[in-house]
Amino acid sequence: MKKDLISVLDMEDYLPELIDEAVTLKAKLKNREILEPLKNRSIGMIFEKPSTRTRVSFEVGITQLGGHALYLSPKDMQLGRGETIADTARVLSRYVDAIVYRAFDHNMVVELAKNATVPVINALDNLEHPCQCAADLMTIKEHKGDFRGRKMVYVGDGNNVCNSLLLGAAIVGMNMVACCPEGYYPNKKIFETAVKIGKKNGATIEIMEEPENAVKDADVIYTDVWVSMGDEAEKEKREKVFKPYQVNMKLLKKAKKDCIFMHCLPAHRGYEVTDDVVDSKQSVVFDEAENRLHAQKAIMLRLIEH
Length: 306
Ligand code: CP
Ligand code: NVA
Fold this sequence. Notes:
The protein is an alpha/beta fold and 306 residues long. The protein has two domains: 8-128 and 289-303, Aspartate/ornithine carbamoyltransferase (Rossmann fold); 131-284, Rossmann fold. It has helices at 15-30, 53-64, 85-93, 106-115, 130-144, 160-172, 188-200, 211-214, 235-242, 249-252, 275-278, 285-303; strands at residues 42-47, 68-72, 98-102, 120-122, 151-155, 175-179, 205-208, 220-223, 260-263. Strands 7-6-5-8-9 form a five-stranded parallel β-sheet. Strands 2-1-3-4 form a four-stranded parallel β-sheet, with helices on both faces. The chain is globular and about 55 Å long. Phosphoric acid mono(formamide)ester binds at residues 51-54, 124, 132, 264-266.
């Protein structure tokens, strides 16, 4: 049976190993080892929204594994003229070996996966960003060595990135607090699932509203934009609500001395994070961006038969 990556939950059985595989792939690349497990394979990538990191890291990663990436914009496809996502899935499955999909609507990713006979990888939707989560956990492992007993505090909007991190932290057994204003909590069902999985793995998963309290003893502070792609109509309102949730030096200083700062990027400097934090020695945001490449190569090797 083909395997998809729609939610971080799909990685529940193998996430710790996947992180180790990504670390190994990173070392191999640094040693200039040539690997071609995806030789003569083609991977279609449908992007409904803009992307810098995800698109480039997938394209480069596919090349490094010996395969071929096709960037598919819905506006250049019949999808943009009303062909259904189900028929698109059926047709693409006759040509390509996997489909990477960045969508506005999570249900569209589910529908594509249901109708595709090849693996589907969620490259971000309104509910989750699983590839980001894998790269983030890899980055934490590199900088902190282990997950048990560590505390990550996500400050800001309980969005797709936050949802995926809650599941990821619970699976690897890392404590996590989502510090979000009322009305902007993470997805309820995902949160409850993360609490359950966390219990099994010795991790506490909590929601708090007050940033200065939440970041006490944090090993990792994470934030993301206040206005995600698709939320633009609420820009003004969101900028007001989230103002007290800015990650600035004052907040960072309330965490552990060696706390690292993370952000999936793109950063909206001066909004969710200040320049001095994102450019500080504690910031690992560019390691995080690099690790998208290695983590996604590990994901593709897990899902695509070779
Ligand atoms: N972090 C992330 O997914 O970035 P892009 O939108 O640039 O792909
Ligand atoms: N939460 C952001 C992440 C961007 C990578 C968004 O969905 O726009």
